[in-house]
Amino acid sequence: MQPSIFNPWAWRDPSALAGGYDQATPSVTPPQRQDGGHDGPDAPGPGTPVDLVGYHVQASDGRIGTIDEASDEADAGYLVVDTGPWIFGQKVLLPAGTVAQVDHQERVVHVDRTRQEIKDAPPFDSDAVDPEYRERVGNYYADRYVPPAGATPRVF
Question: Are 52 and 94 in contact (CB under 8 A)?
Fold first, then answer.
């Protein structure tokens, strides 16, 4: 079996950036809503690019903040999350590869890291976003990547 190589800057499921679904995951066909609607904001139609700014971010063990900036560039995707009072109003940079799921109806991005892992990541400084910083952040998250149970390894 080949080892999995985690690319922290690539979206694991690029279709999650397109709207029209309660949830977007690579292996699940979105269910049809039986209730005819929901109480939240409308999600854009399938294939419509979605701006994730303003979405809430949920770590594996709790909420961490709100997306302040997002990039969907190929192999350079990231989220800048404003943590509010959680870590004294600091912002954190999350590589796109940490995103496990996007729920457009609830406007929530789920990441597969704990709050502590995110808090311990290299501090975000918008003035210091250079290749060395991106490499440091990418290595930090890649070193902590554990593929989900039963997942097929992907090699980039």
Answer: no
Instruction: Please compute, for residue 54, the number of CA atoms within 13 A of its CA located in the half-sphere on the CB side.
Output: 7
Q: How sure is the predictor about 116, in pLDDT bands with cuts at 50, 70 and 90?
A: very high
More confident residue, 126 or 74: 126
Cα–Cα distance measured from residue 22 to residue 96, given in angstroms and rounded to the nearest whole number = 19
Q: Indicate yes or no: pTM above 0.90.
A: no
Q: CA dihedral defined by 66, 72, 75, 81, rounded to 10 degrees?
A: -10
φ, ψ for residue 58, nearest 5 deg: -115, 120
Strands (E), the chain: 56-59, 62-71, 78-82, 91-95, 99-103, 108-111
pLDDT band at 49 (very low <50, low <70, confident <90, very high): low
Strands 99-103 and 56-59: unpaired
Q: What angle do CA 73, 78, 83 make, to 5 degrees?
A: 150
Are the C-beta atoms of 124 and 92 separated by less than 8 Å?
A: yes
